[in-house]
Amino acid sequence: MKKRILLSLCLASSLFADAELEAIKEQVKKQELKTAQLEQQIVTIEQKNTNQSASFSQNAYLPDIAFILNTSAVGRNIANPAYANLAIPGFINAGDAELPFNANRGFNFNYAELAFHATVDPYFDAFAIFHISEAGLEVEEAYITTRALSYGLKVKAGKFKSAFGRINEKHQHSWLFAEQPIIYKSLFGPDGISDDGVQLQWVAPTDTYVMMGVDAMQGRNERSFGNLAQNNLYVGYIKTSLDLTEDLSLLAGVSLAHGQTDVAKNSDVYGVDLTLRDQLGSYSSLILQSEYLQRNRDQDTTDNTDKQAGLYSQFVYQYNNNYSGGLMYDRITKNETDLSAYAGIDTDNLDRYIAMLEYKPFPMSRLRLEASYDRTKVINGARENVKTVMLTLNVAAGAHGAHSY
Length: 405
Hints:
About 30% of the residues are buried. A hairpin with a 2-residue loop joins strand 2 and strand 3 (about 125-135). The protein has helices at about 1-55, 80-85, 180-190; strands at about 65-75, 105-120, 125-135, 135-145, 155-160, 195-205, 210-215, 235-245, 250-260, 265-280, 285-300, 305-320, 325-335, 350-360, 365-380, 380-400. A 16-stranded antiparallel barrel has the order 1-2-3-4-5-6-7-8-9-10-11-12-13-14-15-16. By secondary structure, the protein is of the alpha+beta class. It starts with a helix and ends in a 7-residue tail after the last strand. About 15% of the residues lie in helices and about 50% in strands. The chain folds into 2 domains: about 15-55; about 80-95 and about 150-400, Beta Barrel (Porin), CATH 2.40.160.10.
């Protein structure tokens, strides 16, 4: 009896031992499976880190660099000292004209530019443009722009050219003509509205491109503003573009710049621009561009307001990727201001005509021949018709982005 009981106990113990062993084996298998899963996760994370390291390598942050050179040969019927003393009645007094481009009869080194662009990180781009001339080196633009804002928003901050109007934001080498429109030169000077500030733009979520923006700037432009007691210049604009046909597109915009003069008087500049482009072929096109600007500026010592305005129109035919030609007409259309300093001088019919022929052997080099007949200048106390023929050479080397048309 006792032997049977002992055998039963041994058998029960063996059965319990086998069950426990199987449970332990099952736990080991589960642990091995979890270990394999963890090892796979480690491999995946290491691969991800390797890919991120490759995509965010230091090479990705090296800036694009471009070098731009602009020179010219000029023939003009006015001697250099007299031309440097020019005036435009009601806008620019004798001796106050700034002539950074094509100033002299003969040869001109107009300027060189060094342009830098780099991605800072996933959130910002950085830009810097240095202007080099015989007068020295200056920072023409230096700013950052956002890359990842939601709802179609974009912010720019630093020193930059305002998006006022059609051509203010463009640099001289990207103009369709070598000469700046008279109304721009008269109201803003050769640099346009270029200042320290911040810009906010919004692109509407629509099929038709609509962009609204506002620039808050210091207001250093002495032609129309210049009260530096605090930032005083605010620029607002609305721009749109649409395709009228498969080949014909339209760009239009309205702009307003509000600031104060150096004697704390209000100065407002209004602008309307329109551009039509007809794409005739792969390298052939027609461009018609017009812009009208008006300035209402309170006078310094009275309650009256000066009202001055002007326009320009440009027509450019690009025959192919090498040759293009064009015509430009600009005019002062309104000049309601004190013109007593020009007594006895005809101050009407202030306009100019320009004809242009351009040859581009390659996209980054350009020869441009222009002839102009300018009736906007008073020189040495007399109205002078300025006749100019110039040949300009422009080259751009390095990573230089395309310009908008």
